[in-house]
Amino acid sequence: MKGYHDMLLKSTSLKWMGFIIAILVMVLFMCASVIYGYTDTSWQTAVDAFTNNNGSNEHIIIQTVRLPRALIASAVGASLAIAGVLMQTLTKNPLASPGIFGINAGGGFAVVVAMTVFSVNSLQVFSVLAFIGAAVAAISVYAIGSFGREGLTPMKLTLAGAAMSAMFSSFTQGLLVLDEVMLDQVLFWLAGSVQGRKLETLVSVLPYIGIGWIGAVLIAGKMNILSMGEDVAKGLGLNTGLIKIAIGVIVILLAGGSVAVAGPIGFVGIVVPHITRSIVGIDHRWVIPFSGVLGAILLIAADIAARYMFMPSEVPVGVMTAIIGTPFFIYIARRGFNGR
Predict the structure, then answer these.
(1) Are 323 and 265 in contact (CB under 8 A)?
(2) Cβ distance 158 to 91 under 8 Å?
(3) Which one-letter DSSP state was computed for residue 9?
(4) Are 192 and 129 in contact (CB under 8 A)?
(5) Are 213 and 82 in contact (CB under 8 A)?
(6) Which of 17, 85, 223, 238 has the greatest number of C-beta atoms within 10 Å?
């Protein structure tokens, strides 16, 4: 991978132009998500669904199924990508993603416990429990990684996250073995999906991920300083402990909210930050907003592709992101992280 100094957009005017184009592409993909799928609809049908709704099956599907799906995919994709940027900067690990905090595993475990132990089958309850489980997992990892004389270090944080993720995954598998009746339903959720999610589910966590988006933008400048190294950042007067706590909280809000809405979706937080840096460089004031838009585009595109792979059946979007992200993951690993 080329160094990020070989970025595609070097001037500020080009970056603004690229950002506007990316937003337009995101809107185009959202429109495509509303139109294309198993039920045959057209652009005119989509327009009529909002301007002259006649109660037809096509209009109902567009309004109640596909529009929420497009909005959820865009919000989740943006949140996971931004969380990935923050985690890669915090841990100094180019392969870091929300999964490294054990967030996905914690959220998944909470849902499996609700299904198998308490026989809960409400999607709204799943969302709340997933958010709580993800937050508890992330806070636990952060606390464990802070123990010791050195305090919070990238290596300790990474190891704590890997250990916590393995633990929650093992517990989850154990519960599924004990209750095979719930296996299919749970596995579909654990694979990560925006299918069948209601807009109310997104609305319930939107305040949290909204705060996360704003917080990420506000600390972008300080993250530039932090990325120079701990000693340099402290020498420049940055309160690194406070910044790390802020990053941890924002990651919990973004990744926890995403897990609550769509289940654990992998690789978006790994792939998008690297693509973004190759376009705009390493300035977080550009990387964060660009990653949000590109993350939304990636997840919407993956969701559209998931509808057609085995039509009329659908593949969970988490499977599609794995197909896209796995080769990229291997590429970065084989290159020895030279991109950073």
Answers:
(1) no
(2) yes
(3) -
(4) no
(5) yes
(6) 85
Model-level pTM? 0.90
Name the DSSP class of 63. I
Give the pLDDT confidence of 36-95 residue by residue, as tens digits: 988 878 889 999 999 988 888 889 999 999 999 999 999 999 999 999 999 999 888 887
State which CATH number among 3.90.1150.10, 1.10.3470.10, 1.10.10.10, 1.10.8.60 fits the domain covering 4-334. Answer: 1.10.3470.10
From the list 114, 98, 317, 301, the residue with the least C-alpha distance to 209 is 98
266 in helix, strand or coil?
Answer: coil
* Contacts with 203 (C-beta within 8 Å, 6 or more apart), sequence order: none
Check residue 339 and give its pLDDT. 44
Residue 127 class from Cβ within 10 Å (0-12 exposed, 13-18 middle, 19+ buried)? buried
Written as six digits, the tokens of 282 are: 């390493």
**Distances from the Cα of 24 to the Cαs of 285, 294, 296, 334, in angstroms?**
20, 11, 12, 34
Coil/strand/helix, residue 95 = coil
Closest CA to 58 of 31, 27, 37: 37
